[in-house]
Design a protein that fits this description.
This protein is α/β, with parallel strands linked by helices. It folds into 2 domains: about 100 residues, 2-Layer Sandwich (Enolase-like, domain 1); about 260 residues, Enolase-like C-terminal domain (TIM Barrel). Helix 7 links the parallel strand 7 and strand 8. The structure holds D-gluconic acid and magnesium ion. The site of D-gluconic acid has 10 residues, from loops.
């Protein structure tokens, strides 16, 4: 079998997605997600201009060799744009392999390690009563794990909370959304939020929260310690993780479990965090961390240190990534949880999929490959629509971590 075409499809069915389609001389094709939120066209160009031409004529079954070729052959290693492009190629090649073998991807990886995949949903409110209402809806829908984010009193806007009611989407059209941040107000309020959740719903659901890189290590340590009575499943991205050693400080002070890594793109970003057991869950996912071939290496390293996976699954990762991730999750021995935010209706139509959600768990389905396709005619009806991720500033105007 030979690769005869590789096309990049950019579409905006409710939000922007970049998809790579690799076609073989035998008519089989595979697709991969190449969406890097807010920087979509950089990856589209990287693929179109620098990767697709080099794929033509190759044997799509040589997945490892193609991965190494794209990683080492670029000379310029790692980085989100390169690794997202490699991730898309890798996902598409595994899809082709599954179709050629007539097997669902999870079976190629080694078969199911569990019956279904536990996912966590987002309960988000502009204030405490609204956040608790959303939490109640998730409990009703059968979620076993729920992330809570809430507007902070006297703070204009905060990560994870939409200004309007309805689904949260960080990227905005037109001007960049500039949000303001006060660590003091946040740290004062957030323990009360968790207390209210446990008071109303007890301890039957796993409770998660995303700090979104906003605290310094010692502030994160203080928060982790303060919220220990509420027994969080995880506290996510409590501080930026470029400096992996910074997490030692958090670990010295608290037993609240820590999840990190949605912005990571390679094993090198989390090597120290894993080897020193500074985190409990690794959030890297297929699209941004080099596909199945690479994420499998990350998960295997993590398993040596009892670190579990918690793949990023925001709606800016396409339904293609969701499908492939569910196969990965069904197989990976050291699975923790999978994020699932849901998708706009139009996106679900553009990407016909075998995966399904039922009462807090998901399954990738039994279709050969990863089980997600793209309706190209429909995709063409939703042209690219530029959108920006927000930035955050301290109340005095200093640029902060969004
Ligand atoms: C999460 C993430 C997302 C990111 C988004 C950026 O935990 O789901 O923090 O909401 O902000 O993926 O594009
Ligand atoms: Mg996050």
């Amino acid at each position: 079998m030979k690769i005869v075409r590789a096309d990049v499809i950019v579409t905006c069915p409710g939000r922007n997605f970049v998809t790579l389609k690799i076609v073989t001389d035998e008519g089989l094709y595979g697709i991969g997600d190449a969406t890097l939120n807010g920087r979509e066209l950089a990856v589209a160009s990287y693929l179109k201009d620098h990767v697709c031409p080099t794929l033509i004529g190759r044997d799509p079954g040589r997945i490892e060799d193609i991965w190494q070729y794209l990683y080492k052959g670029a000379y310029w290693r790692r980085g989100p744009v390169t690794m997202t492009a490699i991730g898309a190629v890798d996902m598409a090649l595994w899809d082709i392999l599954g179709k050629a073998a007539n097997l669902p991807l999870y079976r190629l990886l080694g078969g199911a390690s569990r019956d279904s995949v536990m996912v966590y949903g987002h309960a988000t409110g502009r204030d405490l009563p609204e956040a608790l209402e959303r939490y109640a809806e998730h409990v009703e829908a059968g979620y076993k794990a729920i992330r809570i984010q809430c507007g902070i009193p006297n703070m204009g806007s905060v990560y994870g909370v939409s200004k309007r009611a309805g689904a949260y989407e960080p990227a905005t059209k037109g001007a960049v959304d500039e949000q303001s941040w006060s660590t003091e107000k946040y740290l004062d309020f957030v323990p009360k939020l968790f207390e209210a959740v446990r008071e109303r719903f007890g301890f039957d659901t796993h409770l998660l929260h995303d700090v979104h890189h906003r605290l310094t290590p010692i502030e994160a340590a203080r928060l982790g310690k303060a919220v220990e009575p509420y027994r969080l499943f995880w506290l996510e991205d409590p501080t930026p993780a470029e400096n992996q050693a910074a997490f030692r400080l958090i670990r010295e002070h608290t037993v609240t479990p820590i999840a990190v890594g949605e912005v990571f793109n390679s094993i090198w970003d989390c090597k120290q965090l894993i080897e020193e057991q500074l985190v409990d869950y690794i959030r890297a996912t297929l699209t941004h961390a080099g596909g199945i071939t690479h994420l499998r290496r990350v998960a295997d390293l993590a398993s040596l240190y009892q670190v579990r996976t918690g793949c990023h699954g925001a709606s800016d990762l396409s339904p293609v990534c969701m499908g492939a991730a569910l196969h990965f999750d069904l197989w990976v021995p050291n699975f923790g949880v999978q994020e699932y935010m849901g998708y706009p209706e139009a996106a679900l139509d553009v990407f016909p999929h075998a995966w399904r959600f039922e009462r807090g768990v998901m399954h990738p389905g039994e279709a050969p490959g990863h089980g997600v396709d793209i309706d190209e005619a429909l995709a063409a009806r939703y042209p690219y629509d530029p959108a920006w991720l927000p930035v955050a500033r301290l109340e005095d105007g200093t640029l902060w971590n969004w």
